[in-house]
Amino acid sequence: MRLGVDRVLITGVNGFSGRHLAAILANDPGMTVLGTGRTPTTAAAVAGYRSCDLTEDRTVQELIPWAAPDTVYHLAGLWNAATDEALVDVNIRAFERLRDALRVHARGRRVRMLVVGSAAEIGLVLPDQLPVDESVRCHPVTAYGMSKHALVQSALAEPPDSGLEIVVARPFNLLGAGLSENLAPGRFAAAVRAVARGETDTIQCGWLDGRRDYLDIADAVRAYQLLVDRAPPGTLANVCSGRSVRTGRLLDRLLKVAGVAPRIVASETPRESDVADIRGSHALLTGLTGWQPHIPLDESLAALLDAAT
Q1: pLDDT tens, residue by residue, 183-206
Q2: Which residues neighbour 263 within 8 Å (Cβ) at sequence distance 6 or greater?
């Protein structure tokens, strides 16, 4: 069990999860929280920041001596790339560059690292497989899911004598303030705001009958912390609510909170990559750390709507 940590590095600190994690860790006076991302500056709550392109060897080699981390939260990643090659470069090769640099840094010391996978690794599942646990055989149906699955397999293969202790979190669908509008709940919130402002009376959206496992971002980053603190190296743990919710319910709840009733034009058929229903089991995470989800869905959706533009 990790007793304490002085220096923490968050990759992808400018992203949705990175900003929320940094804000929580910054409240711990025993930690020096550092961040890295591609932009020249950051608004994240970190004591130090360094711009770094993890796809470039030189910048990664400079990053690790600068940060000298005891713990690394590797949240950087790409999911909406124009090409499959870009997904491979950012989600797999960038991790490998970071891992190699951390192995050198870990010589003679212990360095903890959390790597984030995705429920997109799992792909299509049968109803009798629900809720899925960590033993489920993954059959990803998207290039993003494939790249994340390859990342996770690489992370879990870390040799026990490398000095780099890696645990893997597999989050399902996250909600909260600042979620990208490229994801369905973020799009819904932005569309509802547009209706509330009188800019439109119609919301167009995709298939609403799929069911997903949604979890508040604050619950998720708390799980990340606990995994770093308490899980043995080589752990893969689902980070999820354990329940699935119809996608259309999210839109209904957002409309109710905003007090608007636009016309909804939704696709009647799913895309080939759409999964009808998926929910995870967090029994392993709970058993290892005592973690439980606490934040109600409506509270997550209210935060999402409040932050939408």
Answers
A1: 999 999 999 999 999 999 999 999
A2: 201, 202, 203
* Cα distance between residue 278 and residue 211, in whole Å: 6
Measure the CA–CA gap between 270 and 141, rounded to whole angstroms: 14
Q: In angstroms, rounded to a whole number, what is the distance separating the alpha carbons of residues 220 and 169?
A: 9
Q: Exposed, middle or buried: residue 19 (CB in 10 Å: 0-12, 13-18, 19+)?
A: buried
Which domains occur in the chain, in start order?
A: 7-175+214-243+279-295 (3.40.50.720)
Indicate if the pLDDT at residue 18 is higher than 60.
Answer: yes
Contact 32, 47 (CB under 8 A): yes
Do you know the residue count of the chain?
A: 309
Does the predicted model carry a pTM greater than 0.90? yes
Beta-bridge partner residues of 42: none
| Distances from the Cα of 297 to the Cα of 50, 244, 248, angstroms | 35, 11, 13
